[in-house]
Amino acid sequence: MALYVNTNVSSLNGQRQLMNSGTALDTSFKRLSSGLRINSAADDSAGLQISNRLSGQINGLNQGIRNANDGISLAQTAEGAMEEVTAMFQRVRTLAQQASNGSNTDEDRLAIQEEIRSLMGEVNRVAKDTTFGGQNLLDGSYSASFQVGADAVQTISFSMKQVGGTAGDSDHSLTANGGFTLSGMAAIASEVTGKALTDVLGAAGLSGLSAMDTAFALAGAAFSAANLNASAISVSTQVNAQLVMASMDSLIAVVDKKRAELGAVQNRFQSTIRNQSNIAENLSGARSRIQDADFAAETAALTRNQILQQASTTILSQANQRPQVALSLLG
């Protein structure tokens, strides 16, 4: 074999191998210290793009889950307020039933009427003052879409503007009638329940009541918002008390209808949360397989690269001494 002094090929080869093992060792250090297999685009350019796309979707799903939980909280707030409204209507119904009994005098009924008007005033206050994050829920104006998906226009919407029917249905709209106030619900009661006042009163209808006062006679077969106004509602006579009792049944039905809608949308949000939690979990697993470092494999690679670096250093030292053999030829 020829002996060269100016060009030490063995040394050059040792330097190259040492550089390669050093680069591999640096890669192992980065992966083990960060826990990531991909620390830069140079590590895996296609994998970096895929993992970033998965990260965007996972982040979107997790935020969508939080948004859906906010929707549940909002619906629960509205439904809780309406539960209290139902309780007040039940109390008014009981008082109206008491007032409709023949053992009471008109003076007795007036005393009962004071509590009824107080309760109905509270119904109106609840409708006006129930808010969530500064937004009024029961005044007939609330309608919103909740971004529950990872991508645009993946939403769940619900509205407090109407009870039953469809969006924009004027027959079921509360917007123009004060929302879930007493008069607002009374205005749509017959449309929502499908029953006029005569149906609620039974087969005898209005003719089954004697001495009906002029106000209720003018109301005809429909529920009248004016007659069920918080300050005007009256059980001062036996006839009026029976009409109020019949009216409460329909108002309770209106509230229960909306509470059922709110319960359904809460269940929908819960279903969305469960589904998206499952998707986010599976996507996280897929991203992990692309992006995360396998510590078992990386520690094995680290050990190998450390041994190779030590071996390359030893061989390079010996290769650098090899040209000295030429001195023995000169002696």
End-to-end gap: 20 Å
Unreliable segments of 5+ consecutive residues: 203-223
Count of extended strands = 4
The profile of the biggest β sheet is: 2 strands, antiparallel
* Average pLDDT over all residues: 84
Tell me the number of helical segments per DSSP (H or I, 4 or more residues long): 9
Secondary-structure element string: HHHEEEEHHHHHH
Strand content: under 5%
| Protein structure class | mainly alpha
Assign an overall shape: rod-shaped
Task: Kindly state the percentage of residues in helix.
Answer: 55-70%
Physical arrangement of strands within the biggest beta sheet: 1-2
Radius of gyration: 40 Å
Subcellular location: Secreted; Bacterial flagellum
Domain Flagellin N-terminal: 5-141
Domain Flagellin C-terminal: 247-330
Protein name: Flagellin
Features:
9 helices, rod-shaped, 65% helix, 4 strands, two-stranded antiparallel ribbon, mainly alpha, two-stranded antiparallel sheet, 331 residues
